Amino acid sequence: MGLIYSEPVCQAAYDSDVHRLYEHLKNDPKLLNVQEDTTGDTPLIAACRHGNKRVVHYLLDNGADVHLTNKKQRTCLHYVSRRTFSALDYLMICVLMPILLLGYFLMLQKQREHQAVMDELLSSSVSVDAVDYKGNTALHYVCQRGSHRLVPLLLRQSADANVQNNDGETALDIASRLKFKKIVRLLNKAQ
Predict the structure, then answer these.
(1) pLDDT tens profile 75-89
(2) How confident is the model at residue 15 (pLDDT cuts 50, 70, 90)?
(3) Out of 30, 36, 38, 95, which residue is the most buried by the measure of CB atoms under 10 Å away?
């Protein structure tokens, strides 16, 4: 279950296999920013799709370009912003919820990991207001997902809450439409 890349270095990044990633980059350092043929994903984008902080950290430490976009004009930050729980995560949370609230703690841990990956990217020179082919920024996506923990991280990096996507919606419009009151308060406070 997951993505299959034709570029082995992208696959290693997506699979969170730091050892294999190290071997690929040791043999050919130019692969650090290679783009996969079909999607245009780079190893950093692949790592962000999967959400592994250790791999993202490793790639950033080695100089991966955070500004590269794939064929959907999305950067690595777009994918961190779009990330949600996987079907397996939801299943584990539901099954473990009645058992001493283990599901709740699993959910909190996944949210912390997601926040850590976002922090890691925001500590680089990534553009927080980059738009994809739909005109969405990272702030649009975290508002669509109701990620009230990630909105303040983007706002601290001066994310522009007034950017309109191709449908003419700002992040505030999306949060209001979806009735995410906490996010609406955060965005109003930032303006």
Answers:
(1) 999 999 987 655 666
(2) very high
(3) 36
At 168 the pLDDT is 97
Where are the chain's structural domains?
1-102, 128-191
- CATH number assigned to the domain with residue range 128-191, chosen from the 4 options 1.20.1250.20, 2.30.29.30, 1.50.10.10, 1.25.40.20: 1.25.40.20
Residue 131, pLDDT > 80, answer yes
Fold (CATH) for 1-102: 1.25.40
First-to-final CA distance of the chain: 41
For 97, 101, 141, the CA distances from 104, given in Å and listed in that order, are 6, 5, 24
pTM, two decimals, is 0.85
